[in-house]
Design a protein that fits this description.
Elements: H1 4-17, H2 33-41, H3 43-57, H4 67-86, H5 96-118, H6 120-123, H7 125-130, H8 137-163, H9 176-200, H10 204-217, H11 225-231, H12 235-242, H13 245-257, H14 270-295, H15 299-302
Helix pairs in contact: 3-8, 4-5, 4-8, 5-8, 5-9, 5-10, 5-13, 9-13, 9-14, 13-14
Length: about 300
């Protein structure tokens, strides 16, 4: 039977012999495949966080998840009436409602991933300080809940195409795959980066909201790419505008769901542009994750 002093000394020796793994240090082995394995091992926690985010959003609401349907429909109605009818944009774009909603769905997914991910670590400060788990699960959970809401909007979009008797039963529907991948990859990369920066500089979240609003109007959602081509005289500036990953993703969604745009003018090589944007996005997500890893070491202290 060990005395209390001997038992305490034994615990200290065992603690001293336990290897320490620094978090966020340069060259940390959590980067890359190790981080993916860690996230997979905590996939149940990730799923729990996604469900919690979805339930908390409409907590104590009578309509609950029906708000996921109502909000995009109201947003569509506003843009259709104000931009399409009052400002006359619908005169130049056939099936204007489908055209706008395709762009709104793409941009809405990106905005929700980035904005939600930016505040995810700060909003889960209690868990960060008390429980060990990969910090990446917080921005990833925001991406998961955004994809759920996007799925509901996609059902509304498909319903709208059938309502105007022009369902997307054409080969261009495959454009939705690379376009969706571009949005998710870039959104997740920026969510990782900004969620870490937001811990140290809380103004980041408000800045991100402003920038995403500007990106909305800088994308061909309520106006056409063909209109931009006629307004921008410089070929170089037109290429810069067109090769914006968000612009390419929005154009991809429009080509996939906007059947009335069969005769519209599109930028050449859209497939190749989307592929290049996706490769650049994968590089970006690696860089942003490494930055996240370097910054996460002091999350608990900052929170």
């Amino acid at each position: 039977m060990l005395s209390p002093n001997e038992e305490a000394a034994s615990r200290l020796r065992r603690l001293a012999a336990t290897p320490l793994h620094p978090v966020g240090a340069a060259g940390s082995d959590r980067a890359g495949l190790a981080a993916i394995r860690s996230i997979i091992s905590h996939r149940e926690m990730l799923g729990l966080l996604v469900r919690r985010d979805l339930k908390a959003r409409y907590k104590d609401s009578t309509l609950g998840f029906f708000w996921s349907l109502i909000r995009p429909l109201v947003q569509l109605a506003i843009y259709f009436v104000v931009m399409g009818q009052f400002l006359g944009a619908a005169q130049f774009i056939p099936d204007f409602a489908v055209y706008v909603f395709a762009g709104l769905s793409a941009m809405g997914l990106f905005t929700e991933i980035v904005v939600g991910g930016t505040g995810s670590v700060v909003n889960n400060g209690g868990l960060v300080k008390k429980v060990y788990l990969p910090r990446e699960v917080f921005p990833l959970s925001s991406a998961g809940s955004a994809l759920f809401n996007f799925g509901i909007q996609l059902i509304v979009l498909l319903g709208a195409t059938f309502l105007v008797l022009k369902p997307p039963l054409h080969w261009q529907i495959v454009y939705v795959i690379p376009s969706l991948l571009v949005i998710v990859v870039y959104g997740t990369a920026l969510a990782l980066l900004f969620s870490a920066v937001n811990v140290y500089l809380r103004d980041t979240q408000y800045l991100v909201e402003v920038v995403t609003m500007l990106l909305f109007w800088a994308s061909p959602i309520v106006y056409s790419w063909e209109m931009v081509k006629t307004l921008i005289a410089s070929p170089f500036l037109l290429e810069v505008y067109t090769n914006n990953p968000l612009t390419l993703a929005v154009l991809g969604f429009q080509r996939a769901f906007w059947v009335a745009g069969e005769g519209a003018e599109w930028p050449g090589g859209l497939w190749l542009r989307l592929a290049i944007a996706l490769v650049v996005g994968l590089v970006l997500i690696i860089v942003c994750h490494r930055t996240f890893v370097r910054l996460q070491g002091n999350f608990a202290q900052e929170l």
